[in-house]
Design a protein that fits this description.
Radius of gyration: 21 Å
Structural class: alpha/beta
Distance between the termini: 71 Å
Largest sheet: 4 strands, parallel
Number of strands: 12
Bound molecules: iron/sulfur cluster
Strand order of the largest sheet: 4-3-5-6
Number of helices: 21
Helix content: 40-55%
Strand content: 5-15%
Length: 390
């Protein structure tokens, strides 16, 4: 007999009964497929299986079957996941534990059972348009000194992570797009796309942000820096292009030329942090093949990319996403530390990412020991660039 409630979980009811409890999402290690461990939460927060993809499926099943679980205890587990989706990427039979986890969060949010930290993030997004509760006005600091084009043909949405945590990346993106030949403009009153709210299960609040973004953005092609933002826009039926794609195309067809600067040469060997939203299929961006685009760009720039310990599709999350950094900062720091320790082993001299959220997170935890760049910021720092008319 199933509980008639929990309609969001019910959408996954069929899948919930097909988990083979094989434990791949807990501890898979399969060198031939580039799988080297799976779950950042199990590694960096709690080793209990109830914090794993398999555990979230079991919890969802129990709730649907009417088991009287303590919702505070369910919430402690459900809001300790990075939502990275590596459990889904490795599952050999296609179970959707990360999607179920998000539905579980939404069920908890509907019942006012989300933890206080998650509610604080929601309120920060709704009132200040960023999940860090930074003053809204800081969301445009990245652009100081740059002038939006008065007759733009491209609208740049840097996203909260770039605007607040990687301002050099947002700035470099606007400049590079201008060099390529786009007439770029951006909002002087940025609106969060709602991605942090969707990740936390605040579905209605995310819808509010989707509507606000739709009314506040002119009908122009949009270029987005953050993978979370692009995935959110796509899911809300609002297509956009990745800045990464535009950069890759321009380098490929000659609209952007880049030569290493003699006064600031690029590091010879770099590591790449792909970011789960770019690289794991369940986030809906797999068609872009962002890991390949990023490596192509670096190769074209003449920079050697160190071999990563795991294939991008199966890389363990760095701890930036899903609210982890705000809700469980010590755990997120352990996840970042594990990622950074791996870089020393491959001989990389810098870390490059196309994800401002991941780059901002690892930058904080690298503490100056290791340079971490967004891809646009990296090009601006180490290459002289020229566009078609220069
Ligand atoms: S969710 Fe997939 S990987 Fe995890 S235990 Fe179930 S079948 Fe195995
Ligand atoms: S989404 Fe990531 S952190 Fe969450 S259970 Fe799956 S592998 Fe672990």
């Amino acid at each position: 007999m199933t509980d008639p409630g929990f309609v969001r979980l019910r959408a996954y009811e069929h899948a919930l009964y097909h988990c083979a409890t094989c434990n791949y999402c807990v501890s898979a290690s399969w060198p031939e497929r580039g799988i080297d461990g799976v779950c950042a939460t199990l590694r960096g927060h709690s080793p209990a299986a109830s914090y794993s993809g398999k555990g979230y499926l079991a919890t969802a099943r129990a709730l649907l079957e009417g088991e009287a679980l303590d919702l505070a205890s369910v919430a402690e587990r459900a809001f300790a996941c990075t939502t990275c989706g590596n459990c889904e990427a490795v599952c050999p039979i296609g179970m959707p534990p990360a999607a179920v986890l998000k539905a579980l969060r939404a069920e908890l949010a509907d019942r006012n059972s989300a933890p206080g930290g998650a509610i604080a993030i929601r309120d920060a997004v709704l009132s200040r348009q960023n999940p860090w509760n930074a003053p809204a006005v800081q969301g445009t600091d990245w652009s100081l000194g740059l002038v939006p084009h008065p007759r733009p043909n491209l609208w740049l949405l840097p996203g909260c992570a770039a605007a607040h945590r990687q301002p050099a990346e947002a700035r470099a993106a606007a400049q590079l797009l201008g060099v390529i030949g786009y007439d770029v403009a951006w909002s002087t009153e940025p609106t969060c796309c709602g991605a942090p709210l969707s990740a936390l299960g605040f579905v209605d609040a995310a819808g509010t942000q989707h509507a606000a973004l739709a009314t506040g953005t002119p009908p122009l092609p949009r270029a987005v820096l953050g993978a979370e933002c692009l995935a959110e826009l796509r899911a809300a039926g609002r297509p956009a292009t990745a800045v990464l794609e535009l950069l890759h195309a321009a380098l490929h067809d000659g609209r952007l030329e880049a030569a290493a600067r003699g006064d600031s040469p690029p590091p010879a060997v770099v590591a790449v942090l792909d970011g789960c939203h770019w690289s794991k299929p369940h986030h809906g961006l797999a068609d872009l093949d962002a890991p390949r685009l990023l490596r192509d760009i670096l190769t074209r720039l003449g920079v050697q990319v160190a071999q990563a310990p795991a294939a991008p599709r199966y890389a363990v999350c760095c701890g930036a996403a899903g609210g982890m950094a705000q809700l469980h900062p010590a755990s997120a720091a352990r996840m970042a530390g594990a990622h950074l320790a791996g870089l020393d082993q491959v001989g990389a001299l810098a870390l490059i990412s196309a994800s401002p959220l991941c780059a901002g997170h690892l930058s904080v935890h690298a503490g100056g020991r290791f340079p971490v760049y967004g891809i646009c910021e990296f090009i601006a720092a180490h290459f002289a660039v020229a566009g078609p008319e220069q």
